[in-house]
Amino acid sequence: MRLSYIAAVAATLGFATAAINQTGNACIVTPLSATSTSTNLDDSDQIKDAFRRCGKNGRIEFTPGDYYVGKVMDMLDLQNVDVDIYGTFIWSKDIQYWLRNSISVTYAGRSTAWRVGGSNIAFRGHGQALFFGNGQTWYDQNRNQGNQNGRPISFTLWKATNVLIDGITWRQPQFWHTFVAHSQNITMTNLDMNATSNSQWSTVNTDGTDTWNSRDIVIRNWTVTCGDDCISIKGNSTNVHVSNVTCHESGAMCIGSIGSNANQPDYVENIVFENIKAYHSSNAAWIKTYPGTGYVRNVTFRNIEFDDVNQPIYISPCIYTGQNCDSSRLRISDIKWENIKGTSRYNIGAGIHCSAAAPCQNLQFSGIDIKKKNGGSAVKYLCSNIQNQASSGLQCTGPCPGNFPQQLNGDR
Ligand SMILES: *[C@@H]1O[C@H](CO)[C@@H](O)[C@H](O)[C@H]1NC(C)=O
Ligand SMILES: *[C@@H]1O[C@H](CO)[C@@H](O)[C@H](O)[C@H]1NC(C)=O
Ligand SMILES: *[C@@H]1O[C@H](CO)[C@@H](O)[C@H](O)[C@H]1NC(C)=O
Ligand SMILES: *[C@@H]1O[C@H](CO)[C@@H](O)[C@H](O)[C@H]1NC(C)=O
Ligand SMILES: *[C@@H]1O[C@H](CO)[C@@H](O)[C@H](O)[C@H]1NC(C)=O
Ligand SMILES: *[C@@H]1O[C@H](CO)[C@@H](O)[C@H](O)[C@H]1NC(C)=O
Ligand SMILES: *[C@@H]1O[C@H](CO)[C@@H](O)[C@H](O)[C@H]1NC(C)=O
Description:
By secondary structure, the chain is mainly beta. It has 3 helices and 27 strands.
């Protein structure tokens, strides 16, 4: 057995000792902070080094302690690797660095701090791994202005197949917690996420996860507080099963937004959301598209329980702009809502406006039990352009305008 102990002196970082203890293809990593009290530590080089050494047919263990991440990490060729993380990863607050260097993920000008790809990869946090994004710095400098190009997604799976991500906690991510793109057979279980601003500025777009151009995804047992979409299924996602997810302060279970580029169709199909809880959230089970092309079909929202949700069920073909709602050709069909129970903040249970140019087909509702939060009175279900509406199972109480808002600010 080959045993080599590699210790490097990182002189520029205040004489901290980087330690990767490699035995064959197993790397055990100790954080710089274990041997240095410098306030200027950066573990990203030794983290990348560990993945270079042991990221193929190997195992990498991060022992407990604080790992500082001051640079982007891009590792796209991992193969047959088990990664066990017992420590805390802390991303730097150097906004100017990240704005310049975050790795593009092509989707809508977004980028990421850490990109992982390859095949047969397992990241296990054993309930001990913590990814701390120092997001408050981002929320404060962003001042509610929007997505901000270069503001990095915490963790991205990119061209990855056969992946397990398990038992990891995220706090204060810089932007979205996770993103799954161009990937297949991805299982993400037992994750705990929380982005909460402690200042006057909102977190802005700290989604739990977004899937895009990916298939065969399992998401199970997550708890998410995020101020934006909890689980969001974007264009060209197929076969996604989401279960046992609890979302706070979020958009809960969402398809979209998709169809933003009229020249590129977006297809979403075979999606199940079940055993979901949503608290104090904007929406619970909903679909948002631009007036684009492609389709959303075969989606089930089942056993969704919620409390104090602004507008539980919502469909818009013209999200964000409220323009050209009736010219969208992006067809929404074969969608089920089963056992959808809880309280709505105002007097609206559902606002559903489908495009006149491509009416929704085969929407099926059963076990819909939504009451207004204060007083428990009946709510309205507004519907437009649902084909065979009378047999949908939803007792529509009136039409829904094309530009009906996602966020209501009072009774209608
Ligand atoms: C390196 O790892 C091996 C295998 O786990 C262990 O036996 C050895 O004590 C470690 N050495 C150091 C210096 O940590
Ligand atoms: C999917 O990935 C898992 C590892 O997370 C693996 O055990 C399983 O065999 C893969 N399934 C297929 C069909 O390749
Ligand atoms: C669900 O995930 C949490 C971590 O967020 C974990 O503590 C709990 O044990 C998991 N539950 C099950 C049934 O695995
Ligand atoms: C998320 O963090 C905030 C701020 O620390 C805390 O108030 C809230 O309870 C947390 N959410 C959950 C579900 O624990
Ligand atoms: C998922 O939720 C269902 C219904 O609440 C429950 O019966 C089941 O034990 C949960 N499973 C996990 C893995 O948490
Ligand atoms: C979705 O997939 C279709 C067919 O492969 C492709 O033409 C289209 O560009 C993809 N859309 C996006 C937004 O990537
Ligand atoms: C609809 O999606 C479910 C869940 O992915 C799948 O089992 C079923 O076969 C799909 N139905 C059709 C008609 O494709």
